[in-house]
From TrEMBL:
One of its GO terms (molecular function) is asparagine-tRNA ligase activity. It is found in: Cytoplasm. Signal peptide: none annotated. This is Asparagine--tRNA ligase.
Amino acid sequence: MRHTKVIDLLNGSSLLQEITAKGWVKTFRNNQFIALNDGSTIHNIQCVVDFENFPAELLKKVTTGAAIAVKGTLIESQGAGQKFEIQVKSLEILGESDPEKFPIQPKKHSLEFLRENAHLRVRTNVFGAIMRVRSVLSYAVHKYFQESGFVYVNTPIITGSDAEGAGEMFQVTSLSLDGNAPKNEDGTINYKEDFFGKHTNLTVSGQLEAETYAMALGQVYTFGPTFRAENSNTSRHLAEFWMIEPEVAFNDLDANMDLAEDFIKSIIRHVMEKCEDDLKFLEQRLKDEEKSKPQAERSEMSLIEKLQFVLENNFKRVSYTEAIDILKASKPNKNKKFQYIIEEWGADLQSEHERFLVEKHFKCPVILFDYPANIKAFYMRLNEDGKTVRAMDILFPGIGEIVGGSQREERYDVLVEKMKALDISEEELWWYLDTRRFGSAVHSGFGLGFERMVLFVTGMTNIRDVIPFPRTPQNAEF
Ligand code: ATP
Ligand code: MG
Ligand code: MG
Ligand code: MG
């Protein structure tokens, strides 16, 4: 008999029918009530065993983490807490789980402890919820772009272009076993240039390649893994993360901001519709956590209210120059949380500046635009003032930068000038410059860090907790 998913059992459609359920035991109370979960939902199905009808030896093996199959009838539950339950007629242990050794016990584990058990933490309610939300969000990304007529482009993971990632790239090496690996004089393998003799690295962004496709297909997007050698330990940076990068021909910076805002709202709306139970669970988790904090540090809005707020309000669009004026005029030192040195025009904003603007001043998501040219990448469109570029960053409360984007410099001569000034090799980027030589046009795009979005939606605070297997300087074991 095929088994029925727990999520379908819980809606009661197979009431009074004989069903089979399979999953992992969460708890087994009073030798009678098994809470069974199969990953299809945050909720467990209660399986009621009449222990007199089952050998004690068998019931002993119903331990947290064990995989089991139960056959029985789905009935209405008399107990509080659930509508339906399974009256168990037969029980099979599929995979035992030694209670002395299984690390994920039915108690609250710290997130730090769970990070060390990345392969098992998904058995907890909180990680089950996060990973389902992540999956739905990722579907929402494709849905949005596909329904808006974008073409999904897979930009290369291994690339020779290093224009953007100075200092942050992982180099590719190969261990050729055929004896042809480049060797040093002493016979050891030369790891330096090793993609069949060429220097390559793991991509830090698919943008430059996506641009070339936008200049033929009009609207494109990438959604793939991105690598940065971030040798730091922030709660916002991973060495391997997923980035969504749309690129659109004939769109200027304003259209780019419109696209980003519409896109973000659309995927949040989708996840709120499809992940109601998981979001409610995550919201309650946050509320419980907040209880241990002093009143002043508790957040004013619940998780779902925060998401709703983003949907209902326009992102505040502010130029870099205005932002500097606001920062200069504010008296942040009054509030210890925002103690910073007020910068002069031209300096890059630090995360405490960004957080002040978003969390204290505007109290909503902010799009900062028209940054000084010298703090942004070479490919951004120079404004007529000759000193700012059409760049935008989207800043989110509690997260900081979630999106970085720009209108691209479409003028061949201006781009070449810029590259010369920054000592970027024209020979290396000849293919990129071709887009400006043949049919160049205004175009723009942005990069959204997928994990930062998952952080915002789930209310988690450490980026290591929203990706299945985080890659950080400490974490690459499995
Ligand atoms: P940050 O200032 O936070 O280091 P960035 O300006 O270096 O980010 P961009 O090159 O603009 O990042 O990349 C676009 C987006 O990718 C960022 O807005 C952010 O959401 C995400 N991102 C960048 N670096 C990381 C990282 N190491 N881990 C996770 N997400 C990242
Ligand atoms: Mg960075
Ligand atoms: Mg940045
Ligand atoms: Mg950026």
